[in-house]
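[SOLVED] Need 3D model of a two-part complex

Original post:
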Amino acid sequence: MSARAFDAEARGGRVGAGLRGGQRLLRRIVQDPMGLLGLTLALLVVVTGLFADGLVLYDPLKIDVPNRLADPTLAHPLGTDQLGRDVLSRVIKGSQIALLVGISATALAMLGGLSLGLLAGYGPRWLDNILLLLFDAIYSFPIVMLALAVITLLGPSLATVMLVIVVGYVPVYARLVRTSTLGVKNSEFILAERSLGARPLRILVRHILPNVVGPLFIIASMDIPVVITIEAGLSFLGLGVRPPAPSWGRILNDGYSFIRETPWIVIGGGLPLIVTTLGFTFLGEALRDTLDPKLRRTI
Amino acid sequence: MLIYTVQRVGLAALICIVAMTILFSLVYVIPGDPASIALGPRATAAMKEALRQRMGLDQPLVVQLLYFFGNVLAGDLGLDVWTNRSVTTIVGEALPYTAALAATGLGWAVALGIPLGCYSAIRRNTPIDKLTGVISIGAISMPSFVVAIYSLLIFAVALKWLPAIGAGERGDLVDQLRHLVLPAFAIGLGWVGYLARLVRASMLEVMGENHVRTARAFGLPERTIVFRYALRIAVLPTVTLLGIAIGGLLSGAVFAEIVFNRPGLGQLVYGAAATRNYPVVMGTVLVTVLLFVVCTMIADLTVALLDPRVRKSL
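Solution:
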């Protein structure tokens, strides 16, 4: 363990302290060129999502067949799709779906992973073993395959996509929380609490939770773009968001069918995905380096 | 090593059993009757009943589960709802295409990612190292299906350098390889970044260890130190990652096969999902799960073989 990592570990509650010094944190991220780039791109996506309804040039669902598959012009900066809908407006509106799925599915998976991970780490040994086996079993399904199996039975919808993502990610977070729970479980302050007669629930919530939640937040925030990608991928396969809703994946699907006629729909559908993943990843890297250097070793 | 092997194989078997039970119980947890789902809304009650009997759905649950295990052990994954062909045969036909794609994708990722990471670690904090780092993160965060579509657009549609769809003529190796280039590029790109970063990080850690310092003190040439003493240990985490990578590659292969219209497990399961061909979907998913479990097991055993310290912990 390097001196720096040791120092970081010695400062208990480092993440909490970092969050309180929000301004200092922001300054350090902005000083790192990659962090600045990430912050800018991520903000761009979030702001677009928040104000999508005001930013669109046209109604993203408005069909205008005479103007179909048009090349980019000033009126339609990314051209139009096979039904004459404005691609840029669809891309802007699509950021809402992407952010909604990305943030809510990650949050749900985090909540599930947190409770199961605490249970596995602090609970009896047999429960730990059963849960670990269950996590490993779920983890051994490639996520797209799991999605295809569930969607065959439930039918494609946004809710199914969210369900698959949550089920697929709970084991990842649960394992992480379990490991950190095992780490603090036998520390002296927990022993002290126990000998004072604190009940397990109190120990878990008041004393273990604050110690395991920091790394979980960092890892989970870095998974938001991955989750957005999964939603877009499933929608691209026609298994996610139903048409005519403008998910980035749907736009790519429309564009893929007409890739020989016009490249613009595909370019328009793919770029926001790249911007989002790059932005959130660079931002996450910068955040992690600032908040918790110890995590740097686990990619 | 023997004890570790037995334990690890046992664990893999347990995981398979649990995963199979999950797959099996999906049918019951999820509302709706698989026979009606497969046959669609226009099926008569008699047709549904016949299919239900053929799929064994009229038996008690536990009996069905045991039958399912028995059949899988015997290599029987059921019958295609539409063509009545054996699912095992269908999956067996598609598997080589996906295996070739995954192996090529992983192959180029290893061939480029490990040297890149190693070089980055030796030239730590130079502009080249920083550039490699940024490119690696970029490669990791690029969604593989977007890479697939963009490379199709650029190299097949616009430049016409490489074929866009299919897997090439049977028996014509050059043609098949040409068809493999773009899909393999798409699914491997992210892993180049992963491997480069992982190897760099573990190289830096190993280079600071005592045995490397000792080697330096003995005056060994830097080359020998890097390749003989540091890299050998630094690639160990890579082996574990390669096992896990199979899962990601199989997911990526689904997209690559659909974008480039190649035959394979992804294409198979996608087509079957669209026609609600339930036994084919479940059979294919099961095969990918088994592949993943076996690959991670082999990776762990390899690491244990190379590094005695691992054997003691499971």
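Edit: Chain A touches chain B through 50 residues (CB under 8 Å).
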